[in-house]
Design goal:
The complex is a heterodimer. Chain A is of the alpha+beta class. Chain A has helices at 13-29, 33-45, 49-64, 68-99, 290-296, 298-301, and strands spanning 107-115, 125-128, 141-143, 148-155, 160-164, 171-176, 182-188, 197-204, 214-217, 229-240, 244-251, 260-266. In chain A, 29% of the residues lie in helices and 27% in strands. By secondary structure, chain B is mainly alpha-helical. The chains are: A alpha+beta, B mainly alpha. At the A-B interface, helix 1, helix 2 and helix 3 of A face helix 2, helix 4 and helix 5 of B.
C-alpha cells in the first residue's frame, strides 16, 4: 500500500542487517578460490548431504537395474578382445625386451558413480562418490568405456568434484592415433548446453586432419595418460593466415549419459620414475648399448 | 504498521517456503531434472519477501544462495549475492505490487526472476559468463515466465493474502 515519502521509516535495524548480509555475500564471492572450496564442501557435507545421498542411492539402483543379458554380452565381447590380443601382448613384451624399453606408467583404477548436481552454476561439474580415502587426487582423469569424460577438480575424504569436457576450463593435450599431429583440445560452448562441442586448436597449418580422424590424449603435461580416446574430427573450424588450424571434434563421451565412470590414478607409491626411460644417470646415454641389445636378440644368436 | 504486522509470520507461510525449498532440491539435485524444473528458490524467496522485512528476506536469500553455491566450484558466493540482493530489493518494493491479482503476481515473479539472472550474470565473473544475448533472450525470459507461472499457481493454491495478514 502506498505511503507518502515523508511518512516512510528511516533505515532500521532490519535494513542494516540486510545490507550486512549482502556485504557478507560479497566477501564470499571475492574469497580466493582455495578458501572458497571449504565453505562449498561444508554446504555439501551438511545441508545438501541427504539430497546427494538420495541421488547416489537412485543412481546405484539405476546401475544395478541394467539387464543381466546386456552385461553378459559385454563380458563375452571383452573376452573375445582379450583372447585376440593375447598374441599381440606376447609379441609386444618380446619386442620391449629386445629394445630395452620399460613398461608404461602403471595406473590403478577406481570406479565411481557420477552424480549431477543440476543446479545453476554447476554446469560441467559432477560429483564422485569416491575420494582421497580411495586414492583419488586432484587432476586424475575420469574415463568411460568410450573415452575421456573429464578430470577431478576437488577432492575430499570420501567424495570428489570433477569437471567434464563441457566445462569452460577443460583442456587436454591431444594427438592423432598415429602420433603425427598434436594440438590442444578445449570445450567450446554452443548456443545451448546440448550443443557444446570440442575444438582442437594449435594444429600446424601444414598438417591437415581428415574428417573421422580419431584423437587420443597425448600424455604431454603428465595429466592424462597417453592413448585415451577423446573424439573424432568433424570439420575444420578455422585456419588463421597460414599459421595454424583448428578443427571441430565430435566427442566420444556424452556427459549426460554418464552414470558410472572410472578414475585413473597414477600409483606413485609403487613406481620408480627413475627407471621409466631407461637412461643411465649422468651419462645421458642409453642404459643398454645397441650392441648389447643386438647380442641379446635371440635371432642374432641363431 | 504494515512491516510490523507482516513480520508476524503464520506457521503455514513458513511451511510453504520450506516445502518449496525441499521441492527445489528434490527435483534439481536428487532427481537430477536440472533446469527443466522451475526455480523454486526464487518463488520461495519472493513469497517470503512479501511477508517478511528486508533483513529476514535478505537472510533467506543468503541461505538459499549458499545452498545453490554448494556446487559452484568456480564462483562461490555468486548465488548468495544475487539472492540476498533480490530478497532485499523485493522486500523493499513489495508495496508497489499491492494486488493479489494474477497479473500483478505474474509481473512480480517475472521481474524477480529476471533480476536474479542479471545479478548472477554480473557476479559470476568473466571466465564463466555466457554472452548476454545467449543468456537473456531465450533462457532468462523463458525461465522468468516459467517461474512466474509457477509462482502465481503456488500463491493462488496456498490462498495466502499477504496484505491482510
Amino acid at each position: 500500500m502506498y505511503r507518502p515519502i515523508n511518512r516512510r521509516k528511516k533505515p532500521d535495524r532490519s535494513q542494516l542487517f540486510a545490507f550486512s548480509i549482502v556485504f557478507l555475500s560479497l566477501v564470499l564471492l571475492y574469497l580466493p578460490p582455495q578458501l572458497q572450496e571449504t565453505p562449498a564442501y561444508l554446504v555439501r557435507a551438511t545441508m545438501l548431504k541427504p539430497f546427494i545421498l538420495a541421488q547416489e542411492y537412485l543412481i546405484e539402483r539405476k546401475v544395478h537395474s541394467i539387464r543381466v543379458e546386456v552385461l553378459q554380452s559385454r563380458v563375452d565381447s571383452l573376452l573375445m578382445v582379450i583372447i585376440n590380443q593375447a598374441n599381440l601382448k606376447e609379441e609386444n613384451t618380446r619386442i620391449k625386451e629386445l629394445l630395452g624399453v620399460t613398461d608404461k606408467i602403471p595406473h590403478h583404477h577406481i570406479s565411481s558413480n557420477i552424480i549431477r548436481p543440476g543446479t545453476t552454476g554447476s554446469e560441467g561439474l559432477f560429483l564422485l562418490n569416491v575420494g582421497a580415502d580411495q586414492g583419488i587426487s586432484v587432476s586424475d582423469p575420469v574415463i568411460l568405456g568410450e573415452g575421456l569424460l573429464g578430470i577431478v577438480q576437488e577432492v575430499q575424504s570420501s567424495s570428489a568434484v570433477g569437471m567434464d569436457w563441457t566445462h569452460f576450463q577443460f583442456r587436454a593435450s591431444a594427438m592423432t592415433q598415429d602420433g603425427a599431429v598434436y594440438g590442444l583440445v578445449r570445450a567450446d560452448a554452443g548456443s545451448f548446453r546440448e550443443a557444446d562441442r570440442l575444438l582442437i586448436d594449435g594444429v600446424p597449418f601444414h598438417q591437415e586432419l581428415d574428417p573421422g580422424a580419431v584423437l587420443v590424449t597425448s600424455g604431454l603435461g603428465g595429466v592424462y595418460p597417453r592413448g585415451i580416446p577423446i573424439g573424432e574430427i568433424s570439420t575444420e573450424a578455422e585456419s588463421s593466415l597460414g599459421w595454424r588450424r583448428s578443427y571441430w571434434v565430435t566427442p566420444f563421451v556424452l556427459p549426460g549419459e554418464a552414470v558410472h565412470a572410472v578414475v585413473v590414478s597414477p600409483n606413485a607409491d609403487q613406481f620408480n620414475y627413475e627407471g621409466l626411460w631407461g637412461f643411465s644417470s649422468g651419462t645421458g646415454s642409453l642404459s643398454r648399448p645397441v650392441e648389447e641389445i643386438v647380442r641379446s636378440d635371440s635371432l642374432a644368436k641363431n | 504498521m504494515g512491516l510490523k504486522v507482516a513480520s508476524r509470520v503464520p506457521q503455514p507461510f513458513l511451511l510453504l517456503i520450506m516445502c518449496l525449498v525441499f521441492i527445489h532440491l528434490l527435483l534439481r539435485l536428487t532427481l537430477g531434472f536440472g533446469h527443466r524444473t522451475p526455480d523454486f528458490f526464487v518463488v520461495a524467496l519472493l513469497i517470503g519477501a512479501k511477508g517478511w522485512n528486508q533483513g529476514k528476506s535478505s537472510a533467506l536469500g543468503f541461505l538459499l544462495g549458499t545452498l545453490e553455491d554448494g556446487f559452484s566450484a568456480d564462483s562461490f558466493g555468486a548465488h548468495a549475492f544475487s539472492l540476498s540482493v533480490l530478497g532485499l530489493v523485493s522486500s523493499r518494493i513489495r508495496d508497489i505490487f499491492v494486488g493479489d491479482s494474477p497479473v500483478f503476481l505474474f509481473a512480480y515473479f517475472f521481474l524477480g526472476k529476471f533480476m536474479r539472472e542479471v545479478l548472477y550474470w554480473i557476479a559470476i565473473g568473466n571466465s564463466a559468463r555466457d554472452s548476454f544475448l545467449y543468456l537473456f533472450l531465450p533462457d532468462a525470459v523463458l525461465g522468468a515466465a516459467y517461474v512466474s507461472l509457477v509462482g502465481v499457481i503456488v500463491t493462488s493454491a496456498s490462498n495466502l493474502r499477504y496484505g491482510n495478514k
